[in-house]
Amino acid sequence: MKNFARAAGAAAIVLLASCGSQEAEVAQTAPAAQTGNPGGAINDNLGEMDYGVCRGVDPACYHDWPRPEGWDSEWRVLLFTKTGGPRHGHLGTPLGEGLNPELNEDNVAQRGVIEMLEAEGIHVDYSEDSSVLGRLTSYHAVIFYSTTRDNLDDGAQTALRQYMRRGGGFIGVHNAFGTEYNWPYYEGLIGGANFFDHGPNRPGEVVLQSTTDASTRDLPARFAFTDEWYNLVPFPTHVRFLATGIPSEPEPREGGGRGGLSTVVGSHPGHGDFHPVTWCQYYDGGKSWVTTLGHGSGVWNDPEFVGGEEFKTMLLGGIKSVMGMEPFCQ
Predict the structure, then answer these.
(1) 107 in Cβ contact with 42 (< 8 Å)
(2) Residue 133 belongs to a domain
């Protein structure tokens, strides 16, 4: 991936001599713009934070530490769907406390993920109780599926961070990008990116940027899909882009404001001809595979949902690669 220019952090001091004066004038150099993102200027200057961890596509960032004997004798994942704000329809009724509470008929995403993974011989536990994250060391991966807002307390945040540092695996789906906005570590975990806004749910195409990854190698080069096509700020950096999206309609411009007042500030223009939807990276010792896709319930409960099978194939491959069942981030 192209190198990114970093903003200058310190001002330069320039001493100017004039007419024998001993006075010094102080001038500040303008910071360099953050440029070089795929897609050109429309995706530049959207931010690139330093999260204080080793991250990127270099496997040297992975902590391949000794594991107990039999660590891969039974594959296990934790599906986490706790919401601290708006809740997507595909998650259905909020779940009870603890591990594996009773599911309702409208918990279609939870039911769909469980069915898909158990068909592959992968044991799935599920929860919306953040205390359960204290048990992460028993799982090959944790899946954040449309979690929202500040849904982790200090103990859960610490457990997730320590899990990643031990070589853990993270999968983020759809509104995992609307989660923990004010925790920089989490923003780095999902690629140094975050959900900003989206237009209406509308048709488009998913275009592969890699055909060798476990999540993409069995997919057509392009496939139709309907989603919200999340706009991102910051723009993901130091990741391997696996797929981009092409919405069928231009990014709509925001008109009305809040409280009956008109909008007087700008609207996100979208990401032009490089709109990332799926990517992967090594992060702070662990593995992270994420996708902004997955809004529609039809992926899980409508056999005629266009692109649904392709989405599930991509998600399954991503999960397996993070767990260690397949090569990661190719």
Answers:
(1) no
(2) yes
Kindly state the average pLDDT of the residues 301-307.
96
Q: For residue 32, name the pLDDT band (cuts at 50, 70, 90).
A: low
Residue 306 lies in a domain: yes
Which one, of 58, 80, 70, lies nearest residue 238 by Cα?
58
- Better pLDDT: 155 or 14: 155
| Cis, peptide link before residue 247, omega less than 30° from 0 | no
Q: Are 174 and 144 in contact (CB under 8 A)?
A: no
Q: Please indicate, yes or no, if residue 48 is contained in any of the structural domains.
A: no
Q: Is it the case that residue 259 has pLDDT exceeding 80? A: no
Enclosing domain of residue 309:
70-251+263-323
206 located within any domain = yes
Model pLDDT, residue 59: 98
Residue 322: CB atoms within 10 A of its CB come to 28
Range 246-274 average pLDDT: 78
The strand ranges marked E within the chain are 55-56, 76-80, 123-127, 141-145, 148-149, 169-173, 178-179, 195-197, 202-208, 222-227, 231-232, 240-247, 276-283, 286-291
pLDDT band at 26 (very low <50, low <70, confident <90, very high): very low
Q: Is the pTM of this model over 0.85?
A: yes
What are the residues whose beta carbons fall under 8 Å from the beta carbon of 282, sequence distance 6 or more? 54, 55, 56, 57, 58, 59, 61, 62, 288, 329
- pLDDT value at 9 more than 60: no
Nearest to 299 by CA among 308, 291, 290: 308
CATH (domain of 168):
3.40.50.880
- Indicate the residue type of 86: P
Structural domains of the chain, count: 1
- Rounded distance between C-alpha atoms, residue 68 and residue 76, angstroms: 15
The amino acid present at 178, given as its one-letter code, is G
